[in-house]
Amino acid sequence: MNERGCGTRKAGGLYLCSGMSPDGMPVEHFLIDPVVPLDTKPFRAPQFVEKDGLTHVLVWIGKEFYPSVPAYIEEARHMGISRRIPRNFPIEKLSAGSVMMMVHLHARVAENGHYGSYVDICESNVIDWYCPKGKALHRRPGKVDSDTEQCIGLLWPLAKEFMDMRYEPQYATGIFAAFPITNIDYVQEPGKPGVPKDIADRAARTDLQLNAVEE
Fold first, then answer.
1. 47: exposed, middle or buried (C-beta count within 10 Å: 0-12, 13-18, 19+)?
2. Distance between CA atoms of 7 and 189, rounded to whole angstroms?
3. Which of 182, 186, 181, 175 lies closest to 211 in space, CA to CA?
4. pTM across the whole model
5. Which residue, 25, 49, 189, 203, could crosslink 210 as a Cys pair with Cβ 3.0–4.6 Å?
6. In angstroms, rounded to a whole number, what is the distance separating the alpha carbons of residues 182 and 168?
7. For 115, what's the count of Cα atoms within 13 Å in the CB-facing half-sphere?
8. pLDDT at position 35, please?
9. What is the rounded average pLDDT of the residues 52-76?
10. CA atoms within 13 A on the CB side of 2
11. CA–CA distance from 81 to each of 65, 68, 106, 109 (Å)?
């Protein structure tokens, strides 16, 4: 079993998932560029967000498990998304259109973090990087005056090239991706096959698929 940055899934645990498919969209499709700034403190339990008549889930990606946004994205590329939620989480509020909005403490360069300077350093040292969303404006983001036009693609060279520096860039919190919730997994406990009735009853009130899995 492959272990994620946040560890392995636990028996009796309930997980929101965004699965992988050979016919699915690449992970870049689900990135948010520019990252949406979010003024919040770290939170443990996922939070609900209502938008366009749908209920979505705000998920905190801990820096202690994923030191950078690219660390999480590259894991998602190879393993898909699986985020644990409390067993009493009201999954009945979710639907097939619900997404997980991913939040990280280091999702963007801070407003006073000299974004343009890091772009110049990368380009002067011929450090290869690109806009994962293919935005023409972001091909030369050093020419952009506003921090709101930051390209999420710069996070990759920042995570790789500046990790050995005596200081790190000044970052800020933000929403960097929105992944569709494709299914809900319940990891069965040894000797207890199936899904507990309270979870199954709540899942029956949503159109998301509930899986009982062994791990």
1. middle
2. 17
3. 186
4. 0.88
5. 203
6. 36
7. 26
8. 94
9. 95
10. 9
11. 14, 16, 19, 25
The DSSP secondary structure of the chain, one letter per residue, reads -PPBTTB---TT-EEEEE---TTS--GGGGEEEEEEE------SS-EEEEETTEEEEEEEE-TTT-SSHHHHHHHHHHH-EEEEE-TT--GGG--TT-EEEEEEEEEEE-TTS-HHHHHHHHHHTT-----TT--GGGGSGGG---GGG--GGGHHHHHHHSTTSSS---EEEEEEEEEE--EEEEEPBTTB-S--HHHHHHHTTSSSEEEEE--
How many Å apart are CA 94 and CA 153, to the nearest integer?
A: 31
Residue 25, pLDDT > 80, answer yes
**168-210: per-residue pLDDT in tens?**
678 999 999 999 999 999 999 999 999 999 999 999 999 999 9
Pair 203, 195: CB distance under 8 Å:
yes
Share of the chain above pLDDT 70, in %: 85
Position 85: which residue type? I
> What is the identity of the amino acid at 8?
T
b/e per residue, 103-139, with b = 16+ CB within 10 A?
bbbbbbbeeebebbebbebbeeeebebebbeeeeebe
Q: Are 107 and 172 in contact (CB under 8 A)?
A: yes
Alpha-carbon span 16 to 180, nearest angstrom: 10
Task: Show me where the domains of the chain are located.
Answer: 14-213
